[in-house]
Design brief:
Blueprint (H helix, E strand, L loop, with lengths): L1 H21 L11 H53 L1
Keywords: Membrane, Transmembrane, Transmembrane helix
Length: 87
C-alpha cells in the first residue's frame, strides 16, 4: 500500500500544480465512463475514416498526375522521333 499512497500523493500534487497554473478547480479524479469511452471511440473511428478518404484521394491524384506525365513525356518523345525522321 505504500507505493499506492505515493502515487496518490503524486497525483494530488500534480492536480494542485494544475489548479495553481490554470486558476480553476479541477476534479479530483478523472473518471472514464463507458459513455465517454464510446464517444472517444466514435471520434477516433471518424478521424480514421477521414484519413482513409484523404489517403485514397491522394492516391488517385498521384495516379492521375503520373498518367498525365507519362502521356506528355511519351508524346514529346514520339514527336521528337517523328520530326527527326521527317528531317
Amino acid at each position: 500500500m505504500g507505493a499506492r499512497d505515493e502515487v496518490t500523493k503524486g497525483m494530488q500534487s500534480s492536480f494542485d500544480k494544475l489548479n495553481e497554473t490554470f486558476g480553476k478547480k479541477l476534479p479530483q479524479r478523472l473518471e472514464i465512463t463507458e459513455a465517454s469511452f464510446d464517444a472517444l471511440d466514435k471520434r477516433l473511428k471518424a478521424a480514421c475514416d477521414r484519413l482513409e478518404n484523404v489517403n485514397s484521394r491522394l492516391q488517385y491524384r498521384f495516379i492521375a498526375w503520373l498518367a498525365v506525365s507519362v502521356a506528355v513525356v511519351g508524346t514529346l518523345f514520339f514527336l521528337k522521333r517523328f520530326i527527326f525522321i521527317l528531317v
